[in-house]
């Protein structure tokens, strides 16, 4: 049956009813088949008759339905139409590729699945004459790819919070660096907590939880996660996920339950999904330059604090911080901070360093070849031997970078003082120590090494104060022995006596000058010599 437009339908009806033209004449003028014209005129007359003779209509009839039938747009009756190219054989091949994709997802090969265009190309290569649109429609029908209905959830006080990661790029001392922002959001009140970490690993993941629980002074009963590797060790079967050891340890220690949202279903933890974007935009859209990650974290904490103190009309005009106060009595009790360190037994190499993630950290040279118990945090490295802490470093990230402390090499430098000027240890030492060396100890390396040992005893500030005092007494000859005397306060009396003697000498000079003024000019030369 020929399909006509709503305008054609209007022209047919008006020509027939209003102008009195015959169906044959209308067909000649419009070029529309007489059967089509007859169909629409007949249907119009029937519906119009029903509308006029309303009293004869069944009481259940709806006048509005009649009107809708009269003015509806013409359409095909496609009930008996069949798809010519999308045959059963083609549909079976499409189902085969979809099953293949499902198997790849279970094997962790989700990035190697065939997209719709790939399935279409595969069918074309197999010789099937079919269009891309038909393939897409068939895939959608098979997968029942329709809009998902969401169910609004109601949350109890202290029951659920959500966790997620977000990437942030900031300038630290002028250099662009990428950080991972851990974000927690309470489901009941939208209380937000965020903290930056160098990377997305187990120690950072655990430290994020420790910081959050310390901030809220309690623990939520349930934490919701996505399927990131730091939380999910592997997929088991169709829907089960095996948690990582790091997550299990946190759960056991703090006694909270956890659950994972379904794959590609970020709406199942929608609070934190929105919070990551929201906090990142509020915090770093206006400011992205900092001197250190610590400064950036302090700034981020203040931004979250401001957001948490903002009242929300949808929450009874209460702020997230106020709702958290209501939740506090429902939270699990606060515990001492969980030790979020990754522990390892590492051997000190010939350079007296241990290696953590390709980066070197020095230990005292007496421990070369020994096994060092190492606790690895997101921001620091602690080294122990026989339960005694022997070294601490700020953690560095990169490839084959070195963190060297000069005091770890004192024994070696005593034996090889000539190695000091070009050593990595001196180059990475405190800039104040480097300045002292270059000003006072060049070519006196052994004595400088003695000073380094003494710094470890009294501290850097006392050394600097002692050097300032020595500059007033003898700015040319500054030695380690003199620095030690100053630091041990044996020189105070000497300085006082020196000051007293100088005062006596000055008074004596004044007396001689006055006496000389009473003498004849012949004694002038003698007076000058006496003063000198």
TrEMBL record:
PROSITE patterns recorded for this chain? INTEGRASE
Q: Which GO terms describe its molecular function?
A: nucleic acid binding
Q: Which residues form the Integrase catalytic domain?
A: 152-328
Family matches, as Gene3D superfamilies = Ribonuclease H-like superfamily/Ribonuclease H (3.30.420.10)
Any single GO BP term: DNA integration
Which family does the UniProt entry place this protein in? Belongs to the transposase IS21/IS408/IS1162 family.
Q: What is this protein called?
A: IS21 family transposase
Q: Where does this protein come from, organism-wise?
A: Aceticella autotrophica
